[in-house]
Amino acid sequence: MIELKDVQKQFGRKKVLNGISFTIEKGEISCLVGVNGVGKTTILNAIMNLTPIKKGTITIDGEPLTPELYNKIVFIPDASISLPHFTVQQSMDFMNDYYDTWNVKRAKDIVKFFRLNPSDKLRDLSKGNQAKVNLLLGLALDVDYILMDEPFSGIDIFTREQITEVFSSYLVEDRGVLITTHEINDIEHLLDKVILLDEGTIYKEFNAEVMRETEGKSVIDVMREVYNG
Amino acid sequence: MKKSLKSLLNLTAFELDRMSKFLYILIGITLGANLIGYIMTPMRHVSRLNEYMSTQSATSQQALDYYGTFTFYDAINTLWIAGPIALGVSGLLIYSLFIWYREWMGKNTFAYRLLMLPVPRMQLFFSKLIVIYLGIFSLIATQISSLFIGFQIVSAIVPTEWFADMSALQAIQENFLFYYLLPIDLMYFLMINGIGLVFIVVLFTLILMERSFSVKGIVMGIMYGASALALTLFPLFLTDIFQNQYILYGSETIMIVASMLLVIAVTSLFVSRHLLNKKITI
């Protein structure tokens, strides 16, 4: 379980996160939603120890994040994080060199699923294909938790459909997934938990399906209520 | 092989591969400029002597009396030789900054990947440090090889009677740049490289301060760098500070400076470790 307790973060004098607490369980798909600048990416960065927090604790299965735990949790940011002159294959080899949890067979399956060419250089790929490589490098690891930042950002409808398929496939099965996205409609039906952020705090935490059934509202409806007052 | 050592070697090989083009260019420029220097400088001297002989109808001895013999020291004491050394030093200094900042540059933030590797983050620090030092030693090795080639070239160009009997080693010992850069005097070589190593460790620490605290980090870095410099230089002024009450021998001063450098290096490594583990920001 990923557990955040009273996490606080400030940029200069601006409080970005003000006492954030939630948990992510294995086998559960959760989504952080909120308008731009509400702190979604900061939360993911904080979980991965890529930005320091001012106060609070973040633990992965009860332990604070150590380098060894990067074999257990992976973060897929919205920008390409491999070297542009690398080919897809070289990027995979790089991962294989450092991660004990790199699964060669799964990597091959994902390359096939996304119809990627291993000999293509990353700098020559379209934004959509770069996003697929990002997903490939994250999903081919046998990790327990996957964090994804805006996986649908700036990509075409067909690529988006392909990526959406990932969320209902064996690739995320039994894993704890935490995702941030503005394209909530595409994956709303797959979500176990929605964490709605507002002004650095958790405004509401709910199950999208239950919300629809009991109050007849979609996630977007709930967001409208919050942000449009 | 122990896992952490394997990942350090992997990272070092990876960084070395990324530096290879830049290093090949520096080595190429060094070799090229040195060869030009080893050919042009003695040829100019020989043609001057020949011209003197033909215009003045002088004998070889008279020309030699007028211009003097050519030594290997004359061949190495030129901009063709000193220039590439300056270029190498400044090039590697700039690369010491670039080796960190490139990870945050452009659309592809490779810092994400590096900081999320399942290895202690100090391995990133050490792999970059090792690579910079491999660069320094590669350039020193290039200079040493080119010195021996150069000596053969100069000996072939300058006629024996015009070439002073001076070995390559003697010539190098008289050139202050080579004296400090090449392993001629082991003590000096260790000292210069020790100072260089601490300088790069401190520089890396300053970069990490900036990457962790942004503008505040620059101020902290300036203060930290100034303190490190003051601490290194302070033993040199000890005698003045104590108004000649205690006069230190040269070896004692060196020992105190070396101890200060050790303190600065160890402190910088601890600070860097803390910054990489707790403060660095993407």
Automatic annotation (TrEMBL), chain A:
<dbReference type="InterPro" id="IPR027417">
    <property type="entry name" value="P-loop_NTPase"/>
</dbReference>
<feature type="domain" description="ABC transporter">
    <location>
        <begin position="2"/>
        <end position="224"/>
    </location>
</feature>
<dbReference type="Pfam" id="PF00005">
    <property type="entry name" value="ABC_tran"/>
</dbReference>
<dbReference type="InterPro" id="IPR003593">
    <property type="entry name" value="AAA+_ATPase"/>
</dbReference>
<keyword id="KW-0547">Nucleotide-binding</keyword>
<dbReference type="GO" id="GO:0016887">
    <property type="term" value="F:ATP hydrolysis activity"/>
</dbReference>
<keyword id="KW-0067">ATP-binding</keyword>
<dbReference type="InterPro" id="IPR051782">
    <property type="entry name" value="ABC_Transporter_VariousFunc"/>
</dbReference>
<dbReference type="GO" id="GO:0005524">
    <property type="term" value="F:ATP binding"/>
</dbReference>
<dbReference type="InterPro" id="IPR003439">
    <property type="entry name" value="ABC_transporter-like_ATP-bd"/>
</dbReference>
<dbReference type="InterPro" id="IPR017871">
    <property type="entry name" value="ABC_transporter-like_CS"/>
</dbReference>
<protein>
    <submittedName>
        <fullName>ABC-2 type transport system ATP-binding protein</fullName>
    </submittedName>
</protein>
<keyword id="KW-0813">Transport</keyword>
Automatic annotation (TrEMBL), chain B:
<feature type="transmembrane region" description="Helical">
    <location>
        <begin position="21"/>
        <end position="40"/>
    </location>
</feature>
<keyword id="KW-0472">Membrane</keyword>
<feature type="transmembrane region" description="Helical">
    <location>
        <begin position="221"/>
        <end position="242"/>
    </location>
</feature>
<feature type="transmembrane region" description="Helical">
    <location>
        <begin position="79"/>
        <end position="101"/>
    </location>
</feature>
<keyword id="KW-0812">Transmembrane</keyword>
<feature type="transmembrane region" description="Helical">
    <location>
        <begin position="130"/>
        <end position="158"/>
    </location>
</feature>
<keyword id="KW-1133">Transmembrane helix</keyword>
<feature type="transmembrane region" description="Helical">
    <location>
        <begin position="254"/>
        <end position="276"/>
    </location>
</feature>
<feature type="transmembrane region" description="Helical">
    <location>
        <begin position="186"/>
        <end position="209"/>
    </location>
</feature>
<protein>
    <recommendedName>
        <fullName>ABC-2 family transporter</fullName>
    </recommendedName>
</protein>
